[in-house]
Amino acid sequence: MKRFYIIGFLILMSFDTLSQISFKYASTQALPLELSPDWLMRLFLNPWLYGAIAGYLGAFVTWMTLLRYAPVGPSFAASHLELISVTLFSVWLFNEPLNAYKILGGVLILLGVCGISRRCRGRADLCCPPLVMR
Q: In angstroms, what CA-CA distances link 37 with 2, 84, 101?
């Protein structure tokens, strides 16, 4: 089951990264921003917009599948790993600067995910509270 979680979160991170990078490309190609039929046509004919939608749909299906089997606490924390991948791809693809704040943020996200995962190991009562029906 551990392999299922790792593969699932890698797929989730890939879909989330695809959607964010696609939105960045779509937004830069939709400039200049203006409310006109030409701009709407330029926006809706942009393939990156559909890459973003596909990424969101894939992430939604993957997330719902993971939540069915994985503990909620570590799952929620691990779902934020895409912030690191989007930052790294943005540095590479968009020449965004990689500064100390971004590095510190990535390290804190990794520490948080590792800390929650380690804390929840074998503690189903803590990370998967039972459903209470009223």
A: 50, 36, 40
Contact between 5 and 71 (Cβ < 8 Å): no
Name 130's Cβ contacts closer than 8 Å, sequence gap at least 6. Answer: none
Place of tokens 């596909």: 54
Cα 54 to the center of its chain, rounded Å: 13
Please report where in the chains the tokens 């939709």 appear, as a residue.
30
pTM of the model: 0.80
| Cα 109 from chain centroid (whole Å) | 13
Quick: pLDDT tens for 49-107.
999 999 999 999 999 998 888 877 777 777 888 999 999 999 999 999 999 999 999 99
Cα 108 to Cα 32, 47, 78, 104, 111, distances in angstroms = 36, 34, 12, 6, 5
